[in-house]
Specification:
Radius of gyration: 14 Å
Number of domains: 1
Structural class: mainly alpha
Oligomer: single chain
Largest sheet: none
Pfam families: DUF2267
InterPro entries: DUF2267, DUF2267_sf
Shape: globular
Length: 139
């Protein structure tokens, strides 16, 4: 069996995603953008059950999937979907001294994500999650 194309192109596709996220956010470096993306993924993950999180991860490109599930403390209590400003502060708290995530970070990552995924599969999974999940990924 051949290596699936999404795995063969994972690094190139991730670089495209990072460039789209950087452009949407106005950040200037890959490192700044990576921290923002990781923060958004962690904030969303904390609001899902393990079962829902795995289903969500299944529609992400390979490297975003890896970021989403990496170091997951499955015993951590599930958090509620707070207001956008509270969740944005949580994004900004990741590596606080080196985090340049803007107030629009969740929206910016949503814009980039939708440019780089199978949107139909994404919407099917989002529709099966709590209603707040759809609002989280609103552009």
């Amino acid at each position: 069996m051949t290596i699936p194309m999404d795995l063969q192109c994972a690094s190139k596709d991730f670089e495209k995603f990072l460039a789209d996220a950087r452009d949407a956010s106005g950040l200037t470096t890959r490192n700044q953008t990576y921290t923002m993306v990781q923060g958004v993924m962690l904030v969303f993950r904390r609001r899902l059950s393990l079962k829902d999180g795995i289903r969500f991860a299944s529609v992400l490109p390979p490297l975003l999937r890896a970021i989403f599930v990496s170091d997951w403390d499955t015993d951590e209590p599930q958090r509620p979907f707070d207001g956008r400003s509270e969740m944005t502060r949580e994004v900004q708290a990741l590596r606080k001294d080196h985090n340049f995530s803007p107030e629009t970070s969740i929206r910016d990552v949503a814009i980039a994500l939708r440019k780089n995924i199978d949107e139909e599969a994404f919407e099917q999974v989002i529709a099966s999650l709590p209603q707040e999940a759809s609002e989280f990924w609103r552009r």
